């Protein structure tokens, strides 16, 4: 089904949910009574429970849920579980509900959903409203004949963030959460290799650029109150792109001020936004917007989607699939 297909909640679905959970992130024994109470309160039938595995992190489970004719699919896990399940649900008309259970919970943060209240999240899943949002699709070529297509909800990136993820100790991340990235950031910052790329945005001409990092975002907020892409909206039919091109300490200082002070503090108040009107754009950080981006790199580079490493890319094409996913949000009172 393409993005042109009208999305609506099917009336012939049985009133039954499927819950796809990552057993590393979720304890089903603790969650089951909360789910049963929510489904009974809403008058729904028994929920279909589907556990992800290392071999199948959610694709087969989401397909099974669609085949079972469920009315909503609940993803209980981290950003990786959410992305995989959403990839299958894209264009189906079956809504995705979020039960945030990971470290980042990036989509939930950007939709201003409750992060640490399972009862509230499940009430939204069974009795909430559907909000259509965009997804981004990407074709990745590794330079040796391999090609993969994936969808993502929040951000794709090359450079610092992808190298950081590649250097992150998974065992430490499980114990320390986002603190595990501190060491990995240090390793990535010591890598002096720049991205050398050619790119074409929408119908524009091909441009060449050197950059430290490039990130393509469907959403703009990251954990720790970091507003990386201040103009990004999850349902505007475009993605926002940020290119980091620092030259030494001064360049990194400009980026830090821009992201943490201007985006993170000033932009959140009326007075701050007026003060921002006098600030100038800096060369170390550039913003772009568009619907389709084609990138060719001088050598294969690490790439990440929604916080998970996806190996290397020699080139890629990414585009927006507008309003192609329904997400369950709390009903307006």
TrEMBL record:
It is an enzyme of class 2 (transferase). Residues 12-142 form the DAGKc domain. GO terms for molecular function: ATP-dependent diacylglycerol kinase activity. Its EC number is 2.7.1.107. Pfam families: DAGK_cat, YegS_C. InterPro entries: ATP-NAD_kinase_N, Diacylglycerol_kinase_cat_dom, Methylgl_synth, NAD/diacylglycerol_kinase_sf, YegS/DAGK_C. Keywords: Kinase, Transferase. This is Diacylglycerol kinase (ATP). It comes from Agromyces ramosus.
